[in-house]
Amino acid sequence: MESAIRVNLPESAYEIAIAPGNLERLGPMMAQLKLGKQVLLVSNAAILRRYGESAIASLEAAGFTVATHLFPPGERYKTLASIQKLYDTALEHRLERSSTMVALGGGVVGDMTGFAAATWLRGVNFVQVPTSLLAMIDASIGGKTGVNHPRGKNLIGAFYQPKLVVIDPNVLQTLPTREFRAGMAEVIKYGIIWDADLFSKLEASPRLDQLRYLDPGLLQTIITRSCQAKADVVGQDEKEAGLRAILNYGHTIGHAVESLTGYRLVNHGEAVAIGMVAAGQLAVEMGLWSAECQARQLGSIQKANLPTQIPSFLDLDAIADTLSTDKKVQAGQVRFILPKDIGEVIISDRVSRDTLKQVLAQMQA
Where does NAD(+) bind (predicted)? Predict the structure, then answer.
Protein backbone atom coordinates (compact mmCIF):
# COMPACT_ATOMS: atom_id res chain seq x y z
CA MET A 1 0.00 0.00 0.00
CA GLU A 2 1.42 3.32 -1.09
CA SER A 3 0.11 6.86 -0.79
CA ALA A 4 1.45 10.22 -1.89
CA ILE A 5 -0.07 13.45 -0.58
CA ARG A 6 0.82 16.88 -1.93
CA VAL A 7 0.98 19.80 0.49
CA ASN A 8 0.03 22.62 -1.86
CA LEU A 9 1.76 25.82 -0.81
CA PRO A 10 2.51 28.63 -3.28
CA GLU A 11 6.26 28.86 -2.60
CA SER A 12 7.10 25.63 -0.79
CA ALA A 13 4.92 22.73 -1.95
CA TYR A 14 6.16 19.25 -1.06
CA GLU A 15 5.15 15.60 -0.98
CA ILE A 16 4.31 13.27 1.88
CA ALA A 17 5.34 9.78 0.74
CA ILE A 18 3.67 6.97 2.73
CA ALA A 19 4.60 3.32 2.10
CA PRO A 20 6.05 0.33 3.98
CA GLY A 21 9.79 0.14 3.26
CA ASN A 22 10.17 3.86 2.52
CA LEU A 23 13.11 4.16 4.91
CA GLU A 24 15.22 2.13 2.47
CA ARG A 25 14.13 4.49 -0.34
CA LEU A 26 15.06 7.71 1.49
CA GLY A 27 18.25 8.31 -0.53
CA PRO A 28 16.72 7.94 -4.01
CA MET A 29 13.71 10.10 -3.03
CA MET A 30 16.00 12.87 -1.81
CA ALA A 31 18.24 12.52 -4.88
CA GLN A 32 15.22 13.24 -7.11
CA LEU A 33 14.89 16.64 -5.42
CA LYS A 34 18.44 17.56 -6.52
CA LEU A 35 19.48 18.67 -3.04
CA GLY A 36 23.13 19.27 -2.09
CA LYS A 37 25.19 16.17 -1.36
CA GLN A 38 25.88 16.98 2.29
CA VAL A 39 23.43 15.62 4.90
CA LEU A 40 23.30 16.09 8.67
CA LEU A 41 21.12 13.29 10.05
CA VAL A 42 19.60 14.35 13.38
CA SER A 43 18.12 11.77 15.75
CA ASN A 44 18.45 10.36 19.26
CA ALA A 45 20.54 7.37 20.31
CA ALA A 46 17.68 4.83 20.55
CA ILE A 47 16.19 5.74 17.16
CA LEU A 48 19.59 5.84 15.47
CA ARG A 49 20.41 2.34 16.78
CA ARG A 50 17.20 0.97 15.28
CA TYR A 51 16.91 2.85 12.01
CA GLY A 52 20.10 4.82 11.46
CA GLU A 53 21.88 2.06 9.55
CA SER A 54 19.07 1.75 6.98
CA ALA A 55 18.72 5.51 6.56
CA ILE A 56 22.46 6.17 6.26
CA ALA A 57 23.00 3.23 3.86
CA SER A 58 20.20 4.50 1.62
CA LEU A 59 21.58 8.06 1.64
CA GLU A 60 25.17 7.02 0.98
CA ALA A 61 24.13 4.66 -1.84
CA ALA A 62 22.41 7.66 -3.46
CA GLY A 63 25.63 9.68 -3.30
CA PHE A 64 25.12 11.72 -0.12
CA THR A 65 27.81 12.35 2.51
CA VAL A 66 26.25 11.83 5.95
CA ALA A 67 27.19 13.23 9.37
CA THR A 68 25.05 12.69 12.49
CA HIS A 69 23.94 14.65 15.54
CA LEU A 70 22.08 13.17 18.51
CA PHE A 71 19.67 14.92 20.87
CA PRO A 72 18.87 13.46 24.29
CA PRO A 73 15.33 11.99 24.21
CA GLY A 74 12.48 13.90 25.83
CA GLU A 75 10.49 17.11 25.66
CA ARG A 76 12.53 18.65 28.48
CA TYR A 77 15.56 18.82 26.16
CA LYS A 78 13.62 20.79 23.55
CA THR A 79 15.57 23.95 24.37
CA LEU A 80 17.80 26.59 22.83
CA ALA A 81 20.74 24.95 24.61
CA SER A 82 20.13 21.76 22.59
CA ILE A 83 19.86 23.77 19.38
CA GLN A 84 23.23 25.43 20.16
CA LYS A 85 24.88 22.00 20.22
CA LEU A 86 23.35 21.16 16.83
CA TYR A 87 24.72 24.45 15.45
CA ASP A 88 28.15 23.40 16.73
CA THR A 89 27.89 20.14 14.77
CA ALA A 90 26.71 22.00 11.66
CA LEU A 91 29.73 24.29 11.92
CA GLU A 92 32.11 21.40 12.55
CA HIS A 93 30.94 19.65 9.38
CA ARG A 94 30.83 22.91 7.39
CA LEU A 95 27.20 22.67 6.30
CA GLU A 96 26.37 24.97 3.39
CA ARG A 97 23.06 26.45 2.25
CA SER A 98 22.65 23.59 -0.20
CA SER A 99 23.07 21.03 2.60
CA THR A 100 20.15 19.16 4.17
CA MET A 101 19.21 18.45 7.76
CA VAL A 102 17.24 15.19 7.98
CA ALA A 103 15.12 14.63 11.10
CA LEU A 104 14.91 10.92 11.93
CA GLY A 105 12.73 10.58 15.00
CA GLY A 106 9.60 11.73 16.76
CA GLY A 107 8.04 15.17 17.07
CA VAL A 108 10.70 16.59 19.39
CA VAL A 109 13.51 15.70 16.97
CA GLY A 110 11.49 17.04 14.03
CA ASP A 111 10.60 20.34 15.73
CA MET A 112 14.17 21.03 16.82
CA THR A 113 15.78 19.96 13.54
CA GLY A 114 13.34 22.10 11.59
CA PHE A 115 14.07 25.12 13.77
CA ALA A 116 17.82 24.61 13.35
CA ALA A 117 17.40 24.21 9.57
CA ALA A 118 15.32 27.41 9.43
CA THR A 119 17.94 29.44 11.28
CA TRP A 120 21.33 27.96 10.28
CA LEU A 121 22.77 30.13 7.47
CA ARG A 122 19.26 31.67 7.34
CA GLY A 123 17.86 28.42 6.00
CA VAL A 124 19.14 25.07 4.76
CA ASN A 125 17.16 22.18 3.26
CA PHE A 126 15.09 20.11 5.65
CA VAL A 127 13.59 16.59 5.29
CA GLN A 128 11.31 14.87 7.80
CA VAL A 129 11.53 11.10 8.45
CA PRO A 130 9.11 10.63 11.36
CA THR A 131 9.34 7.44 13.42
CA SER A 132 6.36 7.86 15.78
CA LEU A 133 2.66 7.84 14.88
CA LEU A 134 2.24 11.32 16.35
CA ALA A 135 5.10 12.71 14.27
CA MET A 136 3.90 10.95 11.10
CA ILE A 137 0.42 12.42 11.15
CA ASP A 138 1.00 15.75 12.82
CA ALA A 139 4.40 17.15 13.81
CA SER A 140 6.20 16.35 10.54
CA ILE A 141 3.66 18.18 8.36
CA GLY A 142 2.99 21.88 8.08
CA GLY A 143 6.30 23.54 8.85
CA LYS A 144 5.83 24.43 12.52
CA THR A 145 9.26 24.21 14.11
CA GLY A 146 10.53 25.36 17.48
CA VAL A 147 11.64 24.85 21.04
CA ASN A 148 10.12 25.40 24.46
CA HIS A 149 10.62 28.34 26.80
CA PRO A 150 10.72 27.52 30.54
CA ARG A 151 7.33 29.23 30.85
CA GLY A 152 5.59 27.74 27.83
CA LYS A 153 5.63 25.18 25.05
CA ASN A 154 6.85 26.07 21.54
CA LEU A 155 7.05 29.80 22.28
CA ILE A 156 10.28 30.09 20.26
CA GLY A 157 10.06 28.93 16.66
CA ALA A 158 9.54 29.53 12.97
CA PHE A 159 7.33 28.38 10.11
CA TYR A 160 9.70 26.42 7.88
CA GLN A 161 8.46 23.79 5.45
CA PRO A 162 10.33 20.55 4.75
CA LYS A 163 11.34 19.61 1.21
CA LEU A 164 9.90 16.11 1.72
CA VAL A 165 8.19 13.95 4.37
CA VAL A 166 9.04 10.24 4.20
CA ILE A 167 6.74 7.93 6.18
CA ASP A 168 7.44 4.22 6.64
CA PRO A 169 4.64 2.57 8.70
CA ASN A 170 6.92 -0.43 9.33
CA VAL A 171 8.89 1.53 11.93
CA LEU A 172 5.80 1.67 14.14
CA GLN A 173 6.32 -2.02 14.96
CA THR A 174 8.96 -1.00 17.52
CA LEU A 175 7.11 2.08 18.84
CA PRO A 176 6.39 1.82 22.59
CA THR A 177 2.70 1.31 23.32
CA ARG A 178 2.42 4.55 25.27
CA GLU A 179 3.80 6.50 22.29
CA PHE A 180 1.39 4.75 19.92
CA ARG A 181 -1.53 5.83 22.12
CA ALA A 182 -0.18 9.38 22.14
CA GLY A 183 -0.40 9.37 18.33
CA MET A 184 -3.96 8.06 18.44
CA ALA A 185 -4.96 11.21 20.34
CA GLU A 186 -4.06 13.28 17.28
CA VAL A 187 -5.87 10.82 14.98
CA ILE A 188 -9.04 11.25 17.06
CA LYS A 189 -8.48 15.02 16.84
CA TYR A 190 -8.57 14.92 13.03
CA GLY A 191 -11.82 12.98 13.17
CA ILE A 192 -13.41 15.61 15.41
CA ILE A 193 -12.17 18.71 13.58
CA TRP A 194 -12.25 17.63 9.93
CA ASP A 195 -13.09 14.05 8.95
CA ALA A 196 -16.27 12.54 10.39
CA ASP A 197 -15.82 9.41 8.27
CA LEU A 198 -12.38 8.80 9.80
CA PHE A 199 -13.95 9.18 13.24
CA SER A 200 -16.58 6.58 12.34
CA LYS A 201 -13.85 4.15 11.27
CA LEU A 202 -12.16 4.65 14.65
CA GLU A 203 -15.45 3.99 16.43
CA ALA A 204 -15.91 0.77 14.44
CA SER A 205 -12.49 -0.59 15.47
CA PRO A 206 -12.72 -2.84 18.55
CA ARG A 207 -9.49 -1.43 20.02
CA LEU A 208 -7.31 1.63 19.44
CA ASP A 209 -4.80 1.20 22.26
CA GLN A 210 -2.17 -1.03 20.59
CA LEU A 211 -0.87 -1.32 17.05
CA ARG A 212 -1.26 -5.12 17.00
CA TYR A 213 -5.03 -4.81 17.37
CA LEU A 214 -5.39 -2.57 14.32
CA ASP A 215 -6.18 -4.01 10.94
CA PRO A 216 -3.24 -3.13 8.58
CA GLY A 217 -5.67 -1.49 6.19
CA LEU A 218 -7.00 0.67 9.01
CA LEU A 219 -3.46 1.75 9.94
CA GLN A 220 -2.78 2.88 6.36
CA THR A 221 -6.15 4.68 6.33
CA ILE A 222 -5.41 6.38 9.66
CA ILE A 223 -2.02 7.66 8.50
CA THR A 224 -3.17 8.68 5.01
CA ARG A 225 -6.40 10.45 6.05
CA SER A 226 -4.76 12.19 9.00
CA CYS A 227 -1.96 13.44 6.75
CA GLN A 228 -4.52 14.52 4.16
CA ALA A 229 -6.49 16.46 6.78
CA LYS A 230 -3.37 18.28 7.93
CA ALA A 231 -2.31 18.96 4.32
CA ASP A 232 -5.79 20.32 3.47
CA VAL A 233 -5.77 22.74 6.40
CA VAL A 234 -2.15 23.86 5.98
CA GLY A 235 -2.68 24.31 2.24
CA GLN A 236 -5.44 26.82 3.01
CA ASP A 237 -3.67 28.60 5.88
CA GLU A 238 0.09 28.08 6.09
CA LYS A 239 0.86 30.48 8.95
CA GLU A 240 -2.21 30.18 11.15
CA ALA A 241 -3.97 33.37 10.11
CA GLY A 242 -7.34 31.67 10.62
CA LEU A 243 -8.37 28.13 9.72
CA ARG A 244 -5.12 26.44 10.76
CA ALA A 245 -5.86 27.28 14.40
CA ILE A 246 -8.38 24.40 14.43
CA LEU A 247 -5.41 22.00 14.43
CA ASN A 248 -4.87 23.16 18.02
CA TYR A 249 -8.03 21.38 19.16
CA GLY A 250 -7.25 19.95 22.61
CA HIS A 251 -3.89 21.72 22.69
CA THR A 252 -4.82 24.86 24.64
CA ILE A 253 -5.44 23.14 27.97
CA GLY A 254 -3.21 20.25 26.84
CA HIS A 255 -0.14 22.49 26.56
CA ALA A 256 -0.84 23.92 30.03
CA VAL A 257 -1.01 20.40 31.52
CA GLU A 258 2.23 19.45 29.74
CA SER A 259 4.18 22.46 30.91
CA LEU A 260 2.88 22.34 34.51
CA THR A 261 3.93 18.69 34.80
CA GLY A 262 7.43 19.56 33.57
CA TYR A 263 7.05 17.59 30.28
CA ARG A 264 7.81 14.43 32.26
CA LEU A 265 4.64 12.94 33.72
CA VAL A 266 2.17 13.55 30.88
CA ASN A 267 3.27 13.19 27.25
CA HIS A 268 1.95 15.33 24.40
CA GLY A 269 -0.75 12.96 23.17
CA GLU A 270 -2.00 12.30 26.70
CA ALA A 271 -2.21 16.04 27.33
CA VAL A 272 -4.10 16.56 24.06
CA ALA A 273 -6.58 13.83 25.06
CA ILE A 274 -7.23 15.63 28.36
CA GLY A 275 -7.53 18.91 26.45
CA MET A 276 -10.06 17.45 23.99
CA VAL A 277 -12.25 16.18 26.82
CA ALA A 278 -12.08 19.64 28.41
CA ALA A 279 -12.86 21.44 25.13
CA GLY A 280 -15.80 19.09 24.54
CA GLN A 281 -17.16 19.72 28.02
CA LEU A 282 -16.79 23.47 27.59
CA ALA A 283 -18.79 23.15 24.35
CA VAL A 284 -21.51 21.18 26.18
CA GLU A 285 -21.71 23.81 28.94
CA MET A 286 -21.96 26.58 26.32
CA GLY A 287 -24.65 24.73 24.34
CA LEU A 288 -22.46 24.30 21.26
CA TRP A 289 -22.53 20.54 20.98
CA SER A 290 -24.47 17.66 22.45
CA ALA A 291 -23.77 15.41 25.42
CA GLU A 292 -24.13 12.51 22.95
CA CYS A 293 -21.24 13.80 20.80
CA GLN A 294 -19.17 14.36 23.92
CA ALA A 295 -19.85 10.75 24.95
CA ARG A 296 -18.72 9.53 21.51
CA GLN A 297 -15.50 11.54 21.76
CA LEU A 298 -14.92 10.27 25.30
CA GLY A 299 -15.53 6.69 24.18
CA SER A 300 -12.88 6.88 21.46
CA ILE A 301 -10.34 8.44 23.80
CA GLN A 302 -10.99 5.73 26.38
CA LYS A 303 -10.74 3.04 23.68
CA ALA A 304 -7.22 4.32 23.00
CA ASN A 305 -6.54 3.98 26.75
CA LEU A 306 -5.72 7.69 27.02
CA PRO A 307 -6.30 9.80 30.15
CA THR A 308 -9.49 11.83 30.44
CA GLN A 309 -8.93 13.59 33.77
CA ILE A 310 -6.60 16.34 34.95
CA PRO A 311 -3.91 15.09 37.37
CA SER A 312 -5.18 15.62 40.93
CA PHE A 313 -2.06 17.48 42.08
CA LEU A 314 -2.30 20.27 39.49
CA ASP A 315 -3.50 23.67 40.67
CA LEU A 316 -6.49 24.76 38.58
CA ASP A 317 -5.65 28.46 38.93
CA ALA A 318 -2.18 27.69 37.59
CA ILE A 319 -3.75 26.02 34.53
CA ALA A 320 -5.96 29.06 33.89
CA ASP A 321 -3.00 31.43 34.36
CA THR A 322 -0.77 29.39 32.03
CA LEU A 323 -3.36 29.76 29.27
CA SER A 324 -2.67 33.52 29.20
CA THR A 325 0.83 32.86 27.79
CA ASP A 326 -0.44 30.48 25.10
CA LYS A 327 0.48 31.31 21.47
CA LYS A 328 -3.22 31.34 20.58
CA VAL A 329 -3.99 34.37 22.81
CA GLN A 330 -5.25 37.26 20.68
CA ALA A 331 -5.87 40.77 22.03
CA GLY A 332 -5.54 39.36 25.53
CA GLN A 333 -8.27 36.75 24.97
CA VAL A 334 -7.59 33.01 25.05
CA ARG A 335 -8.98 31.44 21.88
CA PHE A 336 -10.38 27.94 22.33
CA ILE A 337 -11.14 25.47 19.56
CA LEU A 338 -14.58 24.10 20.46
CA PRO A 339 -16.53 21.29 18.74
CA LYS A 340 -19.98 21.77 17.21
CA ASP A 341 -20.36 18.32 15.64
CA ILE A 342 -18.20 15.35 14.74
CA GLY A 343 -16.10 16.82 11.92
CA GLU A 344 -16.77 20.49 12.73
CA VAL A 345 -15.22 22.92 15.21
CA ILE A 346 -15.21 26.68 15.76
CA ILE A 347 -12.69 29.16 17.18
CA SER A 348 -14.08 31.02 20.20
CA ASP A 349 -12.79 33.66 22.60
CA ARG A 350 -16.02 33.60 24.60
CA VAL A 351 -15.08 31.03 27.23
CA SER A 352 -15.46 32.74 30.61
CA ARG A 353 -12.95 32.04 33.36
CA ASP A 354 -15.84 30.84 35.57
CA THR A 355 -16.96 28.25 32.99
CA LEU A 356 -13.36 27.21 32.47
CA LYS A 357 -12.77 26.72 36.20
CA GLN A 358 -16.04 24.79 36.52
CA VAL A 359 -15.07 22.35 33.76
CA LEU A 360 -11.52 21.95 35.08
CA ALA A 361 -12.91 21.18 38.55
CA GLN A 362 -15.27 18.54 37.08
CA MET A 363 -12.34 16.91 35.31
CA GLN A 364 -10.23 16.74 38.46
CA ALA A 365 -12.90 15.04 40.58
Answer: 107-111, 131-132, 144, 153
